[in-house]
Write a structure and sequence with these properties.
There is one protein chain. This protein is mostly helical. The chain has one domain. It has 18 helices and no strands. Helix 2 packs across helix 3 and helix 6 runs antiparallel to helix 18. The termini are far apart. The N terminus is likely disordered.
């Protein structure tokens, strides 16, 4: 009887924290990557964590019990890391990026959305895939796709396809961008601005920046969060346009509650931490400790990114939408880089 009670109690504890197994797996992979990075020289811990996650996800049959934890890391842990990164910045450092960076963000977002729609029409992609890929490239990858998908009545398969396409480019960017940056001798501010406008998912933007250097990582984070704030107006515009085109009574309603769900609230947490640090409310030792914790959490997030990659699914989904997504990402890389040079950022 006692054994049975203990079993039931243990089961209840497990269901109370369904994210725990996946979280522990991501932390273990991240910690191992940190240790290995001490012996790999130029290969950073974020890249080791990403590669290890991909290898585990595709060579080992992972139990379904780790899936909730992987999603938890990609959502909650990522946002926690970004908020903590604010403790290492000041509002003065953010303001020094200047109006040129804001123009860079605005132009890149407009170009990405417009090109996504145009390329989708030229390639005759089915349904909403082109809109989703354009939105994901313009703003914040999977987050934008998941927020906008229901507003334009995208099918689950289209959302999954678009996320996978964006995600494929993210992996390529994490490896290639720092190499290109060093080859072209970009300053850390210039690289961070390029990374923050041309790479999609927040986790990969931050990781790519910190691979290049601490100032590049901080710059990329600020630029990316500025770009993320544009998710709300973009969601409103695309949702309104879709509703206007719909002729039946099943079109989605753009309620205030729906739009509030798309607000990236963690951006304000990041700004709040930077404000506290600017006023001296966060002592320097604590600021350094929070920044170090955020750095490790980013490694854990990249482990989750790798664990979420399904190579077989990418192979099965076909080449045309994937080619459009990668082509759009390549164009945006060139456009963003050209604007960074033209605006003389960094």
């Amino acid at each position: 009887m006692t054994d049975r009670i203990e079993t039931i109690t243990g089961a209840k504890r497990a269901t109370s924290f369904p994210w725990l197994p996946g979280l522990l797996l991501c932390v273990a992979v991240g910690a191992a990557a940190r240790v290995l990075a001490r012996f790999t020289g130029a290969v950073p811990d974020v890249l080791i964590a990403l590669a290890s996650g991909i290898a585990l996800a595709n060579l080992v049959r992972l139990p379904e019990s780790v899936r909730p934890g992987i999603r938890f890391v990609l959502n909650k842990v990522l946002r926690t890391a970004i908020i903590l990164l604010g403790a290492g910045l000041t509002l003065g450092a953010i303001a020094r990026l200047g109006g040129a960076t804001l123009w860079l963000v605005l132009i890149c977002v407009c170009v990405a959305v417009s090109l996504g729609l145009l390329l989708a029409r030229v390639a005759r992609l089915p349904g909403a895939i082109g809109t989703l890929i354009g939105a994901g490239t313009a703003i914040c990858g999977g987050t934008a796709i998941l927020a906008i998908g229901p507003l334009i009545e995208a099918a689950d398969e289209e959302i999954a396809y678009a996320v996978t396409t964006i995600f494929t480019f993210n992996i390529i960017a994490l490896v290639i961008y720092p190499l290109v940056g060093h080859r072209l001798s970009l300053s850390q501010i210039a690289f961070g601005s390029w990374d923050g406008t041309a790479v999609n998912d927040t986790s990969v933007v931050v990781a790519t920046g910190y691979v290049y250097g601490p100032l590049a990582g901080a710059t990329a984070t600020v630029v990316k969060l500025t770009r993320t704030l544009l998710l709300v107006p973009l969601a409103f515009l695309l949702g309104t346009a879709h509703a206007a085109r719909s002729r039946d009574g099943t079109r989605p309603q753009l309620s205030p509650r729906t739009l509030l769900r798309s607000v990236p609230w963690f951006v304000f947490g990041f700004a709040g931490m930077a404000l506290l640090n600017s006023t001296g409310a966060i002592p320097h030792p604590l600021s350094s400790a929070l920044t170090a914790i955020a750095g490790f959490l980013i490694v854990v997030v990249l482990a989750a990114v790798g664990l979420n990659v399904n190579v077989a699914k990418i192979r099965r989904m076909g080449l045309r939408p994937l080619g459009i997504g990668l082509g759009l990402a390549l164009v945006m890389a060139v456009v963003s880089f050209s604007l960074v040079k033209f605006l003389r950022i960094g």
